[in-house]
């Protein structure tokens, strides 16, 4: 069928060599003006002459810049430049690689020895050594305020065996521990800074990464400066990084288009065609383990009944969700791992086909013949609101009612996870290098992300332990398949879709690579010209 053309769209403008309709161009321009992304030169992201300052459009204000106290997966992009980790990972496979620990070995099934890099200092001049590692690990696994105690739950004690040798004595075998030390638990904070700031550095971060902290204007910007004393092999050729917090993805993209940002990450599927077509933009796109999902508070009366949680899973049309909210750029999620992951379980994926009739029948069986009304929480950016509207329409067909109360990512995450408010939260699990850590962090009873403090189903702990007791991939896959089935049979979560990582840059940005976590790292990045 031929689409009738609009006369206004025949008036084409040349935008950097691309024919763009006047309507489209003016729409982008007016949107940018309304959002404040087109301003007088130097009003935003002022760049000193001759300096290679990377200007980044970020999607969310961090919850904290202390790796032990933060509660948002979006924090990692800010944390990575500040804190080097004991272990790091390959961008494509997430396999463990040397970091601040140049090598490690299990001397037996319950003893992990770390051999540390020498000559490393923290930003404040404090030495990085075995005592610093012990201080960090003991703090992360024992401090009352630490949100990552469960990450190190297998560690019984930490001993110093020399200036650059540390031994972790384990309660049980844990082959996932090296990769756990590539995440928050392995981010090393200066002991000197901890002592000076009451054992917390939420807003005064001091690490050993390639960037030092300069300032944080809450909800507006975070400024980092290159650490001249950094000795790592992957130091980027940058004078600093300025993150401007721009919660709307379209506005983040316009910041790059207007020349006031060099890079914008966490873009939505609907921006992908524009990134691909604009000659002034370059896209870095790849698959991720980043999963949009509904977190469920199972301490609430309604959701305490498994049949209600199963009804929510049947009520969701995941393919329609991807088409409507993600412009088709995603993969339907039936568990917390995508099809490409080595631990994906095809049997679990068959549990919840879209079936509103089945959802209503489950509600009736649970004693809710007239349906249920839920207190829902979510974020207030345009993309999240669109997702909420689509879900509400799908829920209505299954006799599930309610409304979303919205706010910023940091505020609503804290309200839901820390204050235990609301029945469910539409958010995402941003993934972890090892899948056993993801399942531990979300579903263990004491986990921060288990808002209802619900005990996992019988057999979960044993299967999770089995997945970390062997380094044989087939053995781990079998154990993790059981973990995934237990989680989904008990409907502890409503997974929706895995997103693509979509990053837009200008032609100055060099050597930026996608990684499977979908959280940009700026190692080896430079700016041309």
TrEMBL record:
Annotated Solute-binding protein family domain residues: 96-444
Taxonomy, superkingdom: Bacteria
Protein name: ABC transporter substrate-binding protein
Record organism: Alloalcanivorax marinus
Pfam families the record matches: SBP_bac_5
Molecular function terms, GO-annotated: peptide transmembrane transporter activity
Gene Ontology BP, a term: peptide transport
GO cellular component: ATP-binding cassette (ABC) transporter complex; outer membrane-bounded periplasmic space
Coiled coil: none
InterPro entries the record matches: Peptide/Ni-bd (IPR030678), SBP_5 (IPR039424), SBP_5_dom (IPR000914), TAT_signal (IPR006311)
């Amino acid at each position: 069928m031929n689409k009738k053309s609009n006369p206004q769209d025949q008036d084409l403008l040349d935008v950097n060599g691309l024919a763009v309709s006047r309507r489209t161009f003016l729409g982008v321009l007016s949107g940018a003006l309304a959002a404040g992304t087109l301003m007088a030169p130097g009003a935003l992201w002022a760049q000193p002459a001759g300096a290679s300052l990377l200007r980044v459009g970020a999607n969310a204000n961090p919850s904290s810049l202390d790796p032990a106290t933060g509660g948002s997966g979006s924090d990692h992009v800010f944390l990575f430049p500040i804190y080097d980790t004991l272990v790091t990972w390959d961008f494509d496979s997430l396999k463990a690689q040397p970091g601040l620990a140049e090598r490690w070995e299990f001397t037996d099934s319950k003893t992990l020895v770390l051999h540390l890099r020498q000559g490393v200092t923290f930003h404040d001049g404090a030495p990085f050594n075995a005592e610093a590692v012990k201080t960090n690990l003991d703090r992360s696994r024992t401090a009352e305020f630490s949100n990552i105690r469960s990450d190190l739950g297998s560690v019984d004690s930490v001993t110093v065996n020399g200036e650059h040798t540390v031994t972790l004595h384990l309660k049980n075998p844990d082959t996932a521990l090296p990769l756990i030390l590539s995440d928050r638990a392995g981010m090393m904070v200066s002991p000197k800074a901890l002592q000076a700031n009451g054992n917390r550095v939420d807003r005064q971060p001091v690490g050993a990464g390639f960037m030092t902290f300069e300032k944080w204007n809450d909800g507006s910007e975070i400024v980092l400066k290159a650490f001249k004393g950094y000795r790592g092999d992957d130091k980027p050729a940058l004078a600093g990084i300025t993150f401007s917090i721009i919660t709307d993805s379209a506005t983040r993209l316009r910041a790059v288009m207007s020349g006031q940002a060099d890079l914008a990450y966490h873009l939505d599927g609907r921006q992908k065609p524009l990134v691909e077509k604009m000659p002034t933009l370059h896209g870095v796109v790849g698959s991720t383990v980043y999963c949009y999902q509904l977190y469920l508070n199972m301490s609430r009366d309604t959701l305490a009944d498994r049949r209600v949680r199963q009804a929510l899973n049947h009520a969701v049309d995941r393919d329609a969700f991807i088409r409507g909210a993600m412009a088709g750029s995603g993969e339907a999620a039936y568990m917390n791992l995508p099809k490409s992951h080595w631990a994906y379980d095809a049997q679990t994926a068959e549990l919840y086909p879209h079936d509103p009739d089945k959802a209503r029948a489950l509600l009736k069986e649970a004693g809710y013949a007239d349906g249920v009304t839920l207190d829902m929480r979510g974020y207030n950016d345009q993309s999240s609101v669109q997702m909420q509207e689509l879900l509400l329409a799908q829920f209505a067909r299954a006799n599930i009612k309610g409304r979303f109360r919205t706010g910023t990512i940091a505020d609503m995450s804290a309200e839901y996870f820390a204050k235990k408010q609301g029945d469910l939260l539409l958010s995402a699990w941003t993934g972890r290098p090892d899948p056993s850590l993801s399942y531990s962090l979300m579903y263990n009873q004491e986990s921060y992300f288990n808002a209802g403090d619900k005990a996992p189903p019988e057999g979960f702990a044993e299967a999770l332990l089995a997945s970390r007791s062997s380094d044989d991939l087939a053995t781990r896959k079998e154990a993790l398949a059981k973990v995934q089935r237990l989680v989904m049979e008990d409907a502890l979560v409503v997974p929706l879709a895995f997103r693509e990582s979509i990053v837009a840059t200008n032609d100055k940005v060099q050597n930026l690579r996608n990684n499977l976590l979908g959280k940009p790292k700026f190692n080896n990045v430079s700016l041309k010209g």
